[in-house]
Amino acid sequence: MNDQPQAPLSIAVVPVTPFQQNCSLVWCTQTREAVIVDPGGDVARIQAALKETGVKPVAIWLTHGHIDHAGGAAELAEALSLPIIGPHEADKFLLDALPEQGLRFEMHGIKAVTPTRWLSEGDSVSVGEVSFSVQHVPGHTPGHVTFFQKEFRFLLAGDTVFAGSVGRTDFPYGSHKDLIAGIKGKLLPLGDDVQFLSGHGPASTLGEERQSNPFLQG
């Protein structure tokens, strides 16, 4: 998925944390402005990737408040003077507790995150000349959001849907029912041709998951 040809948008994936989370650099090929999506940790690795691609970071976007997605956000925002956009405010309790989340996984020095802007269903965000629509898809966490680029047919899915699976919901605040309803009601209708990048694992298309994902049948 790196440097896709003839596209207005380019994406580079930077695996971070022991969870191998897909932190992604997403940039407008016209302006070279970039957003960093879900910087869960390994901030030096993310900064090296920014230098290697030569893009100009303008913001951090968060899909949700788990440590492997948001653990490096405060440090990176401070280092690069960037705003933090998202997730939905329902994940505030998770972002406030990031230091405690980090200790549970022996990830030290993690800072709580206070977003510059919370997101809601129907909002839009942009990088350079490219805009994304925001979908609020709770279930994995209460405030989980996804980012959809209509013209490029591309979705940043976070931990909602994966190739062959869906996000965990076995947390006290999780809801499998809400997650499946959100995937079926908000994500699948975006179109079978939509390619998506999840928070972990390989990319897929919504059509492939509609047909073969065992969690989405019936």
Fold and architecture overview:
Strand 7 (130-136) and strand 8 form a beta hairpin. This protein has 218 residues and is α+β, with helices and mostly antiparallel strands. The longest helix has 12 residues, at 176-187. It has one domain: Metallo-beta-lactamase, Chain A, CATH 3.60.15. The radius of gyration is 16 Å and the shape is globular. The protein contains seven helices and 13 strands.
- Please state the structural category: alpha+beta
CATH superfamily: Ribonuclease Z/Hydroxyacylglutathione hydrolase-like
Number of domains: 1
Low-confidence stretches: none
Main beta sheet strand tally, sense and closure:
6 strands, mixed
Taking all Cα atoms into account, the compactness measure Rg is 16 Å
Average pLDDT number: 96
How would you describe the shape?
Answer: globular
Cα(first) to Cα(last) distance is 31 Å
Oligomer: single chain
Strand-residue proportion = 25-35%
What is the annotated CATH architecture? 4-Layer Sandwich
Q: Approximately how much helix is present in the residues?
A: 10-25%
Key words describing this protein structure:
single chain; 218 residues; alpha+beta; Metallo-beta-lactamase, Chain A; six-stranded mixed sheet; five-stranded mixed sheet; 7 helices; 13 strands; 25% helix
Mind sketching the topology for me?
Elements: E1 9-16, E2 21-28, E3 33-37, H1 43-53, E4 56-61, H2 67-70, H3 73-80, E5 84-85, H4 92-96, H5 98-104, E6 124-127, E7 130-136, E8 145-149, E9 154-158, E10 161-162, E11 165-166, H6 176-187, E12 195-198, E13 204-205, H7 206-212
Parallel strand pairs: 3-4, 4-5, 9-12
Antiparallel strand pairs: 1-2, 2-3, 6-7, 7-8, 8-9, 10-11, 12-13
